[in-house]
């Protein structure tokens, strides 16, 4: 039996989900989306991401990231054209940030983090390695992703597996079933619309909200990537840096401003971001302060924040069409992409088994599966 599946959304979650679904010969997959890789729009979060691998989940909810890291590591080692490279990451903590109101990324600043047994080369830093004003820190090997390259690589992998991509704008999730390239209505819809799930008919998830991220992309090089637990400007403004591979530039961030829909970068925030970065890492600008930064562009994107956490679950529409959701990743869409996509495949396979299919010969999702 062949299953016609339509994936709605062509961000990193939708593309990765379509790729894993396409590994089964029984699935015929179509992706529909308003925005595709190559587009830059405030509605389309994936191109704006840094992107890196800094675990943001709690120990209890770490499955998605735990399952993603080995595949991201394999791609980095074996597939240079995907646009990912290893980069040392340093996280700096201030005790006063740990004592105040929590922010969504707090788990990465834990003193005994769950990911110390997952990410390579983890160690706590000594006092001499800390910038002024910080009380502790850690270091480990992470990755940084050139999103312009990686999203296009995912598209290529999908096409190679027979996935068809279509531009479409829908107002209700049920409309998606009519876009399957098989010529028949889809058996299963996968909703990977991110922040779009707030207003998309048939979903309208009121737990969704934008988490605005403002960044600056510069030509200057900086190693290692840096993340701090807080700034003097309050919770919405944070400090992080990462250098994209293959000439992708260096990201200077940033903000994590929940509820802010503004698409235009704020010049005052940009100045504060640059000032904070050169204070912690003066070498990036050759000791010239912000005048030593060579700016490529300013940007703002809206992370798909969900206050109740990521939604990876199945349901049915009123007409009986099966739907599987995969959205609400906030700032960790890339680093949870393979784990969440794997979760979607499990739910799709459960539907198939209920329909009487045998999955004994299903292929492995990842090359690293045992």
TrEMBL record:
Residue ranges constituting the FAD dependent oxidoreductase domain according to the UniProt record: 5-347
Cofactor dependency: FAD
PROSITE patterns per record: DAO
Cytoplasm in keyword set: no
One Gene Ontology biological process: D-amino acid catabolic process
Keywords: FAD, Flavoprotein, Oxidoreductase
Pfam families: DAO (PF01266)
Residues where D-dopa binds: 303, 331
MF-aspect GO terms: D-amino-acid oxidase activity; FAD binding
GO cellular component, one term: cytoplasm
Binding site for FAD: 193
Family, as annotated: Belongs to the DAMOX/DASOX family.
Record-given protein name: D-amino-acid oxidase
């Amino acid at each position: 039996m062949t299953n016609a599946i339509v994936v709605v959304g062509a961000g990193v979650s939708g593309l990765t989900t379509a790729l894993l679904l396409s590994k089964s010969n029984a699935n015929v997959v179509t992706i529909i989306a308003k925005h595709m890789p190559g587009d830059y729009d405030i509605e389309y979060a994936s191109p704006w991401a840094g992107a890196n691998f800094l675990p943001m989940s709690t120990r209890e909810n770490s499955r998605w990231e735990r399952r993603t890291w080995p595949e991201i590591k394999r791609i980095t080692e074996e597939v240079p054209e995907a646009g990912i490279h290893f980069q040392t990451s340093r996280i700096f903590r201030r005790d006063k940030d740990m004592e105040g109101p929590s922010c969504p990324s707090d788990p990465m600043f834990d003193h005994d983090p769950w990911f110390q047994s997952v990410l390579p080369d983890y160690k706590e830093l000594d006092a001499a390695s800390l910038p002024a004003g910080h009380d502790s820190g850690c270091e480990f090997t992470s990755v940084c992703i050139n999103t312009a390259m990686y999203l296009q690589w995912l598209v290529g992998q999908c096409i190679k597996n027979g996935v068809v991509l279509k531009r479409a704008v829908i107002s209700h999730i049920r409309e998606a079933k009519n876009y399957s390239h098989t010529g028949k209505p889809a058996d299963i819809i996968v909703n990977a619309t991110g922040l779009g799930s707030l207003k998309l008919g048939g979903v309208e998830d009121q737990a969704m909200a934008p988490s605005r991220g403002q960044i600056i992309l510069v030509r200057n090089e900086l190693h290692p990537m840096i993340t701090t637990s807080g700034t003097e400007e309050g919770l919405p403004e944070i400090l992080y840096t990462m250098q994209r591979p293959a000439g992708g530039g260096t990201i200077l961030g940033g903000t994590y401003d929940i509820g802010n829909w503004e698409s235009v970068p704020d010049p005052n925030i940009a100045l504060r971001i640059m000032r904070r970065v050169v204070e912690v890492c003066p070498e990036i600008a050759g000791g010239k302060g912000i005048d030593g930064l060579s700016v490529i562009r300013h940007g703002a994107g809206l992370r798909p924040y969900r206050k109740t956490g990521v939604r990876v679950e199945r349901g049915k529409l009123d007409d009986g069409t099966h739907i599987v959701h995969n959205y609400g990743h906030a700032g960790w869409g890339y680093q949870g992409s393979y784990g969440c996509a794997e979760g979607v495949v499990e739910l799709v396979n459960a539907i198939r088994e209920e329909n009487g299919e045998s999955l004994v010969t299903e292929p492995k999702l990842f090359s690293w599966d045992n």
